[in-house]
Specification:
The chain has 180 residues and is mainly beta. The chain contains one helix and 13 strands. It has an eight-stranded antiparallel beta sheet with strand order 1-13-3-9-10-11-6-7, with no helix packed on it. Strands 2-12-5 form a three-stranded antiparallel beta sheet, with no helix packed on it. A two-stranded antiparallel sheet has the order 4-8. A hairpin with a 5-residue loop joins strand 6 and strand 7. The longest helix is centred in the first third of the chain and has 13 residues. The two termini are 23 Å apart. The mean pLDDT is 84.
């Protein structure tokens, strides 16, 4: 965690930014009984903070992001689940499953993703996600961390969260915050 904070501060200072910057809301979208939530178009600020949460109708749900609706082989990630060994996935059509997959009507997912959105450069992102594996105090959520990049060099001005599971998002919320 300390290394991630140091990296974030280095990025801020590299671009001459104040480390006490404020996040401004860029998009807030809710949906129900769907497999995709789209932020719509927002201002392309240098730093983005994305939060996504959803509850399942039934079956399984998860969350994969696409940026600017680009679904070509433009993403690469390194992921780790529950602190285990990491794996690398290259030439992906999206960010891969950011939250893990959860089952049934108790299923919920939560994702928080930070993106370096500097014009003219590939976009670096870092996310962590949770999915609950059951209800009550007898179960704990699974956690997944991902570092990755998106090869697009244009500013990210829209984000889509797509469900790759067998169920639907009963309810879902996508929030995007930005800062220069």
């Amino acid at each position: 965690m300390v290394k991630a904070v140091n990296l974030a501060l280095e990025l801020l200072f590299a671009y001459g930014e104040d480390p006490e910057m404020a996040w401004q809301p860029l998009a807030y979208v809710t949906g129900a009984s769907t497999d995709q939530i789209d932020s719509g178009t927002f201002d392309g600020l240098k730093f983005l903070n994305v939060e996504f949460t959803a509850k399942a109708t039934a079956g399984t749900i998860n969350s994969v992001f696409t940026f600017n609706s680009i679904t070509t082989q433009s993403y690469a990630i390194r992921e780790q689940v529950n602190g285990g060994s990491g794996s690398t996935n290259l030439n992906l059509y999206n960010t891969d499953n950011l939250s893990g997959t959860t089952n049934g009507t108790d299923g919920q997912v939560y994702v928080n993703c930070f993106i370096s959105n500097v014009s003219g450069y590939e976009k670096l992102f870092w996310s962590w996600g949770l999915d609950n594996t059951g209800s009550g105090s007898g179960s704990v959520p699974d956690r997944k961390t991902i570092s990755g990049h998106f090869i697009g060099t244009d500013l990210i001005t829209s984000i889509q969260s797509n469900n790759g599971g067998t169920g639907d998002y009963q309810t879902a919320t996508l929030s995007v915050y930005g800062s220069d």
